[in-house]
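This part of the workshop introduces the protein records we will be handling. To make this concrete, we reproduce a full record directly below:
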Amino acid sequence: MTGPRLQRAAARIAATATLLAMTAAAPAAPAPFENTIAQRVQACTGCHGPQGRAASDGYYPRIAGKPAQYLYNQLVGFRDGRRDYALMTNLLAPLSDAYLREIAEHFANLEIPYPPPQPASDDIAALSRGEALVMHGDPARRVPACVACHGSALMGVAPAVPALIGMPRDYLNAQLGAWRAGKRRAPAPDCMAQVAQRLAPADIAALSHWLAARPVPPGAKPAAALPAAMPLDCGGVGAIASDGAPAAKGPAR
């Protein structure tokens, strides 16, 4: 190969090497953004677990499959300051009512299996007390049975009453304690605050232990109606359908 030809070949090799180096150094093209509600709510799953299944630490609850109006009420409560958790408040502050409802309906429509229940406490007396409160309440303290509002299966009632089973013991204990201490609030009349403030700390512990040990039947969902009217007027619930009885009244939010 003569001198000029050798120089041209060397130049082509150098140019090819430069192009390969530039290609290798160039950043990869960003993945296309899937503009769906499922993609946009990935921010929620960092705490609430994949698809809203609940976090493993026991304090971030399951949100998948809960009634849509209940989820919406909680989102509005965090945004508007009725519930006190800075991370949720800051995340939701710029979001409109319509967008919060879209988020709530997305998670409400997810049908995901529940984890196994937590092992029951060895304290038989406490478990018996928890079961009695759930099934019969405590008339002497004007505490209604949990099943009277949350349904006989304890899976909640559409559109706004949440399930009491399928959630971690620590979360249940913390939320009942927060209502008792006035740290968690719902629109007036705040029926859960009334109930929690009539319970002793030992009652709250007994309730949370018994409820967390209940398995969720496969395919269980919130009930469509209650067998009778709710025993308390709950401002955060609004009208709840019942079979043959008038519904309790209250604002939807």
